[in-house]
Amino acid sequence: MSKPHPFPLNDTDFRQLLPLGQLGGMMAGFNTTSPERTEQNKSYGMNYIIRGQARYSYGEHNFIVGPGSCIEHYQNGVPHAHERSPDFAECYVTLQQEIVDTITQSGLIRLETQSWHAPYTDTIPHSMCELINAMRDLSVDPSRLLIQCLDFIQHCREKRHLPISSESRLQRARTILASSLDKPLRMHDVAEKVGIAYSTFNKRFHEHMGVSPTIFRICKKIERARFLLQSKQVQAVAAELGYAETSIFTRQFKQHVGMTPRAYQRILRYKTREH
């Protein structure tokens, strides 16, 4: 095994590494350019930022990243764009659509669009160097190369921090979930805001709170609804909490309170008359 490259790499190091490896729909390499570019995303890619700053946009996903950040993007046919600082440097791996189809059909690994932070270390770029060299070797069996490529992706994922276990990150997630209850909120966006992959965020949140992030937000809506129902009509409460249909609000309220909103109001009025 060759000696890992020292970091941060200088420009000479990068010029030696820049020639990419490409074989059988798989491509890997290093990039030091800093253009603004928009193109059509037709495959899966992983980018690990070595130095500099960048902004990546993949459909509705927007990431502002720096050294140690890793971005996975998998949205076939969705336009994506990026802006990079002049001192920018990254390593990347790309899988073309025919390879992606093979992976998704076999269930070898789950591909998704996400951003997370890994320790700023030379192990990820070094593993990338090995992958590039393997892709340059035309005698390598493509199936073995694919396994090596998937091993690299998994290696990167294993390096990521799991900061959701800290109370501050957990509190931030709870605050986001409990705010702007009248507006739609994607759990993937919450995970991005607290800096962790969605699947890990969902798991950690459930471990700490006993419910999923989605159920936690619904509970906050129902909690607010119980207050609003003291003075407002059911339809008005549903609208204020962002429900497109009153029937959906009624169903969720009954699931959590054990009665419909109207029945809950009748009890409130009865208690008020008693006093």
> Reading side by side through the largest sheet, how are the strands ordered?
1-2-9-4-7-10
Q: How do the helices and strands follow one another from N- to C-terminus?
A: HEEEEEEEEEHEHHHHHHHHH
**If you average the pLDDT, what whole number results?**
76
Q: Find the structural class using helix and strand composition.
A: alpha+beta
How many helices? The count is: 11
DSSP strand content: 15-25%
What's the gist of this structure?
The chain contains eleven helices and ten strands. The chain is an alpha+beta fold and 275 residues long.
Write the layout of secondary structure elements.
Blueprint: H1 11-17, E1 21-23, E2 26-31, E3 37-41, E4 44-51, E5 54-58, E6 61-65, E7 69-74, E8 78-84, E9 89-95, H2 97-106, E10 114-117, H3 123-136, H4 142-159, H5 167-177, H6 187-194, H7 198-209, H8 213-228, H9 234-240, H10 246-257, H11 261-274
Antiparallel strand pairs: 1-2, 2-9, 3-8, 4-7, 4-9, 5-6, 5-8, 7-10
Describe it:
The protein has 275 residues and is α+β, with helices and mostly antiparallel strands. It has two domains: 11-159, Regulatory protein AraC (Jelly Rolls, Sandwich); 164-274, Orthogonal Bundle (Arc Repressor Mutant, subunit A). It has eleven helices and ten strands. Strands 1-2-9-4-7-10 form a six-stranded antiparallel beta sheet. Helix 3 (123-136) packs antiparallel against helix 4 (142-159) and helix 5 packs antiparallel against helix 6. The radius of gyration is 24 Å and the shape is elongated.
